[in-house]
Amino acid sequence: MRLLERDSNGEFSLTKDLVNNLPAYAILSHTWGDDNQEVTFQDLTERSGKSKAGYQKIRFCGEQAARDGLRYFWVDTCCINKSDAAELQKSINSMFRWYNNAVKCYVYLSDISIPDDKVKSQSEIDFESAFRTAKWFTRGWTLQELLAPSSVEFFSANYKRLGDKFSLEHLIHERTGIPVEALHGYDPTTYSVDERVSWVAKRETKHEEDMAYSLLGIFGIFLPLIYGEGKEHAFRRLHEEVERASKGHNFEDFSVAFSLSGVSETEHFVARETELIEMHKTLSGNSNRRIAILHGLGGIGKTQLSVAYAKRYRDSYSAIFWFNIRDEDSLKQSFVKAAKRILREHPSVSRLSGINMKENLDEAIDAVKEWLSLPKNTRWLAIYDNYDNPKLPDKTDPTVLDIQQFLPESYQGSIIITTRSSQVTIGHQIQIRKLENEKDSLKILLNTSRREGLINDPDAIKVAKKLDGLPLALATAGAYLKQVAMSFSAYLRLYEASWLKLQESSPRLPSYDRTLYSTWQLSFDHVNQQNRLSAKLLRLWAYFDNQDLWFELLQHGDFEDPEWIRELAKDELSFHGTVRVLSDYGLVEVDRSPQERIESQGYTIHGCVHSWSVHVLNQVWDYDLARVAVKFVGSHAPEEQAVQSWLTQRRLLPHAARCSYILSNGLVTVDGVAWACHNLGDLYTSQGKLAEAGQMYQRALQGYEKALGMEHTSTLNTVNNLGLLYTEQGKLAEAGQLYQRALQGKEKALGMEHTSTL
Length: 758
Hints:
The chain is built from 33 helices and 14 strands. It has a seven-stranded mixed beta sheet with strand order 2-1-4-3-5-6-7, sandwiched between helices. Strands 9-10-11-8-12 form a five-stranded parallel beta sheet. Helix 29 packs across helix 30 (674-686), helix 30 (674-686) runs parallel beside helix 32 and helix 31 packs antiparallel against helix 32. Pfam families: HET (PF06985), NB-ARC (PF00931), TPR_12 (PF13424).
């Protein structure tokens, strides 16, 4: 590699061809102009070329490097002797590495010039428009010049610094389609071959073969250059070399035909691109074992994500095996199936050929593990699906499985584990959450219901919002609607009124091993075995809102309430420890709402899990737990003069709405909780929800009149507050009557001069 060296007079000259101990250097990225105006290697060796237009770019690069404390720099037009075919070929194959090793890369944009006299706001508008249309983004070679260096700075034609690839990352991403993560640090193992080829699709090169050659560094491969072979042939050689490099020399020696026979899979997989990229990044590499652990709520789509990964990257693996680790019997049968597949492709594997697969299951397991541990057999992928009953230090269940006993002994290969437990930590954990994009939810409904035009259907959107990004719930709804002549609005009405009956009558999905109403029973059973308090809390949660249940809200227990509730909330350690068990199985997540709070952070359960807890765990309605919920929410409503009372009031509103539903549907009697209804009325009033406040005051009034009588001061206080509410609503005649009643009652009970009367 030759460099340009700038002397103290600002002049520069070529160094000798350097091999080792290269000094720190800057490098130029630009677009070529007229070939006759670019400074060549011959120009510099003959000390000519200063009159050419391209000389100014070289001078700029040298001066900018000097400002950055760098004595050496490199420019492609003049540092390569292009008349020497061997040197040219070596340089093109080394180009990515040269840019990667540069301390600074200066991008000279010859078609962008922002005059000094423009006002700043207009200048920014002009710059962004010009930046997006810069010729530099259309050239094939500049792709690697963007990705390879760690520091890339952009300059205008009049040498003004415009920013770097980090400050301009969103503009660059919009213009090129290259992920922002790749700009922060290009890792070739993160992106598929097709994705990387797509980055150069809309670019151009002077020689058609250079479209392929410009990608050599992007893929980390080397090819001889054959100008004249044509673009198509060049790309064919590129793909062949990429495939050969990714598979390794022993790939075919251990190949087994791809098959997902017996694995439940969905016809149309939706979204999860971020998770797929993270999985690929985790599992990429040619040495050592790599494990990705997909954990999350049952029905969230862990299995389908694993299927999608296996399909997308099947060509990267010599063999892909699927092991159902739901229980020991299923796992052993999966190993037998794997043994038969290996034997079919490699009949010479003596250890397998002599085994009676029906009688010696353990021998078959050992033989498969041994084959996967062979020294050069490193490119396989094993998927252990449904590891939902893992061996953990505090679990005494005799049916637990220790996955370590079923992993190959040699530390090689790629492994995916799907589990509901967040305590499986033998690899890189990837939490699978609900689908955040509403359009992805609608796509699942569209694919499974076979109904068109859902993207803009308001009722379909309501169903998607109700099912809140849970793939199993969305697929179940779509499958049901495919079979019946029912509108989305009717489905939503049934979902809310007859949840369990609707789920039981929905078709079973071939892509999921459990139904919506049974899928969380397994997790609940494990929770119940591990911590009965956690199981009881999940049942109690049905009587609160699914969002944001926090420690202080449950601290209102007394001797009338079940003892376990007082035990649950005796201190923070007890509460968080109880919730942690639910969290371990993906049933509960930390509430991540951005709202300000003055008490501890809460926890949230998915809306579908909440419906399941209501209709399955509490199939027989528990009036005592309903009373507890109403009492706790009413007790926690802060007085108006409390510090930052509005924060707690706002936080309580969803739980107050749940209590209102319970009370209005006769799911708890007002006897004994009239005071809680009164407090809920105060809460609603403070938050401007006057209609809801009126309903609560009316219930409180009925309860007080029945329990304490018409003239009790508690009854009269509610009468007074109802009068205040009616005044606020402009119902002055009704308000006057209530004020009169309160006044007469207070005069009689407390006297004419009592402050409450006054």
